[in-house]
Amino acid sequence: MGVKFFFAAIVAVLMALLAYFMSYVVDEGQQAVITQFGKPVKFVTEPGLNFRIPFIQSVQKLEKRLLPWDGAPENMQTRDKKRIYVDCWARWRIVDVETFFTNVRTEQEGQKILDDIVDSSVRDVIARNNLIDLVRTSKDRELVYETEELSRTASSRDVVTTGRQKIEEAILADASDSLAARYGMELVAVHIKRVSYNDRVKETVFERMRSERQRVAQLFESEAEEEGNKISGLTRKELDSIEGEMKQKSAEIRGGADAEVIRLTAEAYGRNPQFFEFLQRLEMYKMALRKDTSLILSTNSDMFRLFKTTRSSVAPSNQGTQTPGRADRGQPNEQAPAVKVPAVEAPVEEADRAAPSSVPVVEEASISRIRVDANLK
Fold first, then answer.
1. Residues 71 and 188 in one domain
2. Does 360 fall in a domain?
3. Do residues 59 and 34 make contact, with C-beta atoms less than 8 angstroms apart?
4. What is the rounded CA–CA span in Å between residue 21 and residue 13?
5. For residue 96, what are the CA distances in angstroms to 20, 47, 49, 287?
6. pLDDT at site 303
7. How many structural domains comprise the chain?
8. Residues 162, 284: one domain?
9. C-beta of residue 41 within 8 angstroms of C-beta of residue 51
10. Which positions of the chain have pLDDT values less than 50?
């Protein structure tokens, strides 16, 4: 019994090993190629349990799902002569496992084939388009400028003819032209990951960006200055209007006041015209005579007669006192005729007392002050 059990166990182990080496499982999302002495003899595309001849046939599994491809940045030239670096990525899969295994063999070799095909297609399509088409997503979206000045100065380089989306579709169509028939591969999507300028072009582009920013800044400054001048002009205009109205009202008030003063003065002086004339003459004398003023007057002049009348009218008011300048000469005071004007008091110094008989008498007076007391009734 023990020997039978031992042999049975050995047979079971051998059968298990044989079943293990004979069977293989294809997972979901995978496909397999059965090779016999290096040649493909069977292609399995459906998931499940399958069998092979152990130690003679081998199984090589391939991905059935989407595979990534990420290319290196390539230096290329656009239609408008701009040197740029374009970095792309793609997604691909194996659609014909027999063709793929026959011509490509492994997924790593498929990546190398895509490096050549996709890079070539990207270079060809980029050369047929302008740089603005790579930057803009599509031509359906209108390019919005920050200012009207930039919009007016926009050139043909800012006109989007295709857009990035159309460029990616063109790259995909060009790269997928004979890929499936020759290699059993399908290129599902190609997208542009990054677009950067060449180092030699970067400084020129940055200088252009700076100049555009400076132009926009100058435009904003000029608009601000214009708006400030407009506000200042309106403010000045309003201030001038207010000042004009103020001056007009002030002139009207002053004119009314002056008219009222003139009316009252005329009404007051109209009661005694002779007295008004006398006051006007005194005002003229007051304005003409200042301190240390010397006058040479004829005895027939009105001013001299006024001084004589004034000197004569002062004596009775001072009750017999002598006028300074006359007492030391020993001349008596003269009685002035009665006048109807108020008393006028003025210190007067005469000139030389005597004069030749053949020459008219001329007296010099130094007048320091004139005081008029007027009582209008």
1. yes
2. yes
3. yes
4. 12
5. 28, 16, 21, 128
6. 67
7. 4
8. no
9. no
10. 314-377
Burial 104-138 (b: 16+ CB within 10 A, else e): beeeeebbebbeebbbebbeebbeebbbbbbebee
158-175: per-residue pLDDT in tens?
Answer: 677 888 889 999 999 999
pLDDT of residue 304: 67
pLDDT at position 305 is: 66
Q: What is the dihedral of CA 229, 234, 240, 243, to 10 degrees?
A: -120
Statement to judge: residues 43 and 128 lie in one domain: no
User: Residue 341, SS3?
Assistant: coil
Domain extent at residue 313: 273-372
- 292 shares its domain with 252: no
Q: Is residue 129 part of a domain?
A: yes
Domain check: are 84 and 23 in the same one?
Answer: no
- Looking at the structure, do residues 173 and 108 belong to the same domain, yes or no? yes
pLDDT of residue 233: 92
C-beta of residue 133 within 8 angstroms of C-beta of residue 167: yes
What CA–CA distance (Å, rounded) separates 75 from 71? 12
Q: Which residues pair with 197 in a beta bridge?
A: 84
Q: Is residue 377 part of a domain?
A: no
φ, ψ dihedrals at 6, nearest 5°: -65, -45
Q: How far is CA 101 from the centre of its chain?
A: 66
Q: Are residues 249 and 354 in the same domain?
A: no
